[in-house]
Structure formats: C-alpha cells, structure tokens
Amino acid sequence: MLVLFEGEFGPRQTQRFIEEVLHVGHWSWDLDSGVMQWSRGLMDLLGIEPEPVRPCYSEFEKCIHAEDRMAQGDIEQMLRSSIAVDREFRIINSSGRIRWVSLKAEPIGAVAASPNRAAGICYDITRHREELQLLQRGELRLKTIGKLTTSLFWIARPDGSLSEFLNLPDDMRWLTMMRPTWEQLIHEGDNEAFVAAWRHAIESRQDLSVEHRLRASDGTFATYWTKAAPWIGPNGQIREWIGISRNLSESMRRFSSTGRAMTGTQMRSARAILNWSVDRLSQESGIRPGTIRRLEDIDGALTGDQAEVFAVEKTLSDAGIEFTFYPDGKPGVRPR
Question: Is the pLDDT higher at 207 or at 139?
Fold first, then answer.
C-alpha cells in the first residue's frame, strides 16, 4: 500500500485523505453475524456520527431513499451466490440532504465454501447524475422538437460519415434497422456535390450547407436542404457534427400550381442548364427572340406578358427543368 504520510498513523491518515478527496467510503460485512464495519468516510457520506450507531445493514438501509431500497435478504442471497452487487441509489443524510451514491460490493469466501463475507465501497455520484439528467432532458427536448417538424436531426462522425438519426417520422423508421451510409441515401446525381460540400466543411472547419435528394423507403427521392455544424473539443479537434436535413419537397412550389411567377433570372438559368440558345428557346416555345431577351433582363417576377411567360415556362418544364419557390429563400431552377 502506498503511504502518503509519515509516522505511526501514516496508513490511517492516507486512507482518510483518499476518502475525503474522492468522497468515498468503504465497509465490510459478516453475512453470518450481520455485523458491519464502516470507515469514517462512509459515515461522512451517510451523514452519521460514529458514536451512537452500531454499523449494520438495517442502519445503512435507513439512509437509503424509500423508493431505492432493496431487501436485505435479496442482497445477502446475491452475495452468498457469489454475485457482485453494483447499484446506484439516493441517500438522505441526517441534515435531510439527498445525494446519489454508487455501491459496489464483492463477496468473499474460502475456495471450497460459499461466501460468508462481503466488502465494498460507496462513492458520491451526485454530480454525475446531475449531468446525466441534463443530457437526458436535452435529448427529450430535441425529440419533442423533432415531432413538430419534417426535418431530420442527426449526428455524424468527425469525417462526416453518418452516425445516427435523433428523430425519425414513422415513414422513415426503416433507417434505424438499416443503418445506411450517406452514399446509400443520397441520389447518385447529387452525390458528387454532397461529398464535395462535406470535404470543404471538414477542411475549412465551417458549417455544412448543401441541397440534395434523399431516398425514401419506397425508393423515391425527396429534396432536402442539409446543414451541419462541427462540435469542436477543447483540443481543437472536431468531435462530431450535429446536423439537420429539412424536407423541401413539401414547400417547393411550381408556377403552374401556385400562381407564383417565374423570374427572368430563372429563365436565363434554365436555358443555361439545357444549353439552349435564345433562338432554340424561341423555336421550341413559339415566342420571338426579342421578347425572350426582354423577359430575361427582368430580375424580378414576370407578372406581365402572361401568355408568353406561360409558354416559355411550359417549354422549359417539358424539357426537364424544375422551377422552385421556397417560402424563405430565392426562386431557383434545377434539372428534374
């Protein structure tokens, strides 16, 4: 045994020092006679003065919260069966203060006989339980928030690989059984851009922001906008990413169904995606090139020339262009 203090009482002072610093106490229990021996550290933990109390399990049990007590017979049976005891419970000391305590007990006996003694330690875990309760409360809040939105909350590893989803609607519960990778979920047409966005975020240690299509259980794809922020530890290294993927398909609106007008910028962008010249768009839509150029020069919504605008929008849509209108974003275009 390492003795920290000199002199005749060095071992005892060392033991007392360890108990005070670590808020721990130890004990022994004769299972046949019921007699227990408690260290001063255990008495301090229980809030008991040493003189008027005769150490035994019944006195120990008086300090345990009524909801956490375990019958003495059950404890003895476990120890006599060579089963170690590992429990956490609340104690109420003489001042009425409630503390959380962890108890670990080991049975002791001869090789050819069943255990008739036990030894153990108790230590204060109140702070740990407080931190655990805060974590559980935060997790519960996050799950509750998740029920109010179609967005997906998830955790990714430092390299961006998907770790787990924190909330899933009923139609996406299959993800918990499959434990898929991003590559399996992201549309192959968006995978290259998705990987590039992750690479940039990791290398720059900046937030991730990328739009992509995500696979559903029936094999169809819905458009999502994914954002994530790195959780950076004290050593400056990324510990994990916390992300949210918002379903845009429900909020995505088309001109034909909402009455929202296509913009000149959308028209130019759609033509660029198709690699069409103004003359090609004119031929396909039946609208004069001069009218198309005039409409494309308008940055805002094309509220006038409704017949011409509708003809151009329909032509571009039939060619595979999707016009998007987000309630909290700018109008956009993308290949369908």
Answer: 207
